[in-house]
Known about the structure:
Radius of gyration: 22 Å
Mean pLDDT: 96
CATH topology of the largest domain: Rossmann fold
CATH superfamily of the largest domain: NAD(P)-binding Rossmann-like Domain
Number of helices: 11
Amino acid sequence: MDKNLHIAFIGGGNMATALGAGLAGKICPPENFHVVDINTDARAAWAARGATASATPDSRLEQCQVWFYAVKPQFMHEAVTTSRPFLRDGTLVISVAAGIRGDVLAGWLGATAPWPKLVRCMPNTPALVGEGVTGMLAMPGVTDQERRLAETMLASVGSVVWVADDAAIDAVTALSGSGPAYVFRFIEALIEGGQRVGLNAEQARELALGTLSGAVRLARESDDPPAVLRDRVTSKGGTTAAALKVFEEDDFMGLVSRAMQAAAQRSRELADEFGKA
């Protein structure tokens, strides 16, 4: 833990709260956090955990070596504009805001030239329980040491995957960023399907969640690819084969692929929209 490291959160909502919980006591003390958020309850919650908080950016930001921008994309330009006067040379900026390309944000941050110390991230909501996965993109001016620091901080709420460019962040958005919603939708379908074949809601929920979590753990710990694991469950002419035949007839793989393509396309469209500010 580095007692000399100070971290700012511009936006103190759910994702910032998850990051703060992961970082507190591991990376730096919670007293070293400064949070900017217009919401009174959010500021009070951070203050209760030891952080300082303000409704608008102020000079306390100048003491922070790392800034997290964790606001909704439609508010990002305003957040940057109001906080930029307190940005000091060498500050590492980490954006967890969806839909803002790295080069666009670097341009907003820099007074005369694009801000070089910038890492763009796409986390997902399981970060709220320490099980997130985050796609990360470093701008060229980020040093290896700064990359390691950024990775360590995001790894406090799950795993991280580095990518090479903003196009890859669009792909990350389509897979892991939006992915929890796909999984939740599938869980809903399993629960509903379980009830249709005779289970009650509580039984169906427990079986669905247990099946998903067990299958994920098996896939993670096995050296075999998912297709091999699937084949081991599937006996010729058996119940699993009958179910998978329905999936294949309705082009399940194609459906998932098309859904992800739609998400990636929407990510690109939003980046174009928000990048006009």
